[in-house]
Amino acid sequence: MFVLASINFPPIGELLNWKTIFFGGSALAFNKIGLITLAAAVITIVLFVLAGRGAKLIPTGLQNVIEYGVDFVTNLIVLEAMGPEGMAWVPWLVGMFFFILFSNLFEVIPFIQMPATARTSVTIPLALISYVTFVVVGIKRQGFGKYLKTSLVPKGVPVALLPLLIPLEFLSTFIVRPFALAIRLFGNMLAGHLLLVTFAILSEALFVKSILLVALPLPFAMLVLVTGYEIFVSALQAFIFTTLTAVYIGEAMAGDH
Amino acid sequence: MHLYIFGANQAFNPILPATGEIIWSVISFVVLLVLLAKYAFPPVKKIMAERTAKIRGDIEAAEKARLEAERVLAEYRNQLEEARKEANRLVEEARKTAGLVREDLLKRAHEEAADIKRRADEALAIEKERVMNELRGSLGDLAVELASRIISFEIERQNVDPLVEQFLHEMGARSK
């Protein structure tokens, strides 16, 4: 208890509420989160430009990595969730995947150690963009009335059940979907971030307390383990968010429920 | 010393978004999508499509080359088989021709030999006849001469001739 009591967990504001770097006081306040999202965008663009500029028929190095990423999104996300019709969405979804992936990966990058996606400021706009996209695609492809009908009225259901199902379907498609998208990414990344912070603080506190403590290696081992796990989670969450977006857009395009 | 539970006594709410962060993340994301779709993605996609096309082309070309090679091989095998048959036919024909030539030569040689023999026989017979005639003439003369001398000079030549003739005839018949 004495050891634990001496550990001073920082308040959550210190972990998530970053100081403004530029444009302080205005709505455009630019802080660490803005920096990370900007960096994620710039890194993605730079990687693609570099890979595309020296592109060879037999790929090497970076070109291989980027092409693998594109292949991954094309085969495992677009073709799986949307079919060949979704090929036009590949650049869009590749951008989304890499943007989220890099925003997540800053969680384990030394000295930055903050996933931009642990802020709802990032995940809510992403989820809204995804939401608006699939709704617009659905209305454009099928027309407003038909899109509403295919989204709200499940096929092969007795008419008597419709008064119950239509509100449920409305809730699930138009309310829960964007909310779940945003919260899933945010929750996962925030939890990972807090886990890493916890084990880092614990390791540091034990180290300061006494270098000879038997329990010393345990939090540090956990820290290493969780860091590896968070790299996996970063990729997984980027994959899940992009896949769900693809599924929603694919559904809006196809019109069958 | 305080034991803080995360943010429990803080005014900061970790769930609420901040305006500045929203604006910058949206700007970053939208700019990324636009730049990626317009400039950065097409070259990567192009090279991937080119590779796909090249691999497809190579596979098709290889398949074509394989079929062509198979066709040529079959053709060569056919030609070889035909050449072998032709060679066999030629050898057989040559053998047949040689047999015929041999038989022909042999036949002609036999005929020629027989002819030569026949002509020799004829020549021999004629010669023999001629010698016999000659012999007959001189023998008659000699015999008459001899007889005239031995027996007498009185015997008339006219009376003796038939006898001599008869004698010679008998001699000729015996010698044949």
Unreliable spans of chain A are none
Report the major sheet of chain A. none
As residue ranges, the low-confidence spans of chain B are 1-10
Write down the overall geometry of chain A: globular
Strand proportion of chain B: under 5%
Q: Taking all residues together, what is the mean pLDDT of chain A? A: 88
Which series of helices and strands of chain B comes N to C?
HH
Query: How would you characterize the largest beta sheet of chain B?
Result: none
Name the chain pair with the biggest interface and residue counts per chain: A-B, 60 and 46 residues
What's the order of the H and E elements of chain A?
HHHHHHHHH
Summarize, please.
The complex is a heterodimer of chains A (257) and B (176). By secondary structure, chain A is mainly α.
List the helices and strands and how they pair.
The complex is a heterodimer of chains A (257) and B (176).
Chain A: H1 2-6, H2 12-16, H3 32-53, H4 61-81, H5 90-105, H6 120-142, H7 144-152, H8 162-209, H9 217-254
Chain B: H1 19-150, H2 157-175
Helix pairs in contact in B: 1-2
Please describe the structure with a list of short key phrases separated by commas or semicolons.
heterodimer; A: 257 residues; mainly alpha; 9 helices; 73% helix; globular; B: 176 residues; 2 helices; 0% strand; rod-shaped; disordered N terminus
Written overview of the protein:
The complex is a heterodimer of chains A (257) and B (176). By secondary structure, chain A is mainly alpha-helical. Chain A has one domain (2-254). Chain A has helices at residues 2-6, 12-16, 32-53, 61-81, 90-105, 120-142, 144-152, 162-209, 217-254. Chain A is globular. Chain A starts with a helix and ends with a helix. The model of chain A has no long low-confidence stretch (mean pLDDT 88). With 176 residues, chain B is mostly helical. Chain B has one domain (19-175). Helices cover 86% and strands 0% of the residues of chain B. The longest helix of chain B has 132 residues, at 19-150. At the A-B interface, helix 1, helix 2, helix 3, helix 4 and helix 5 of A face helix 1 of B.
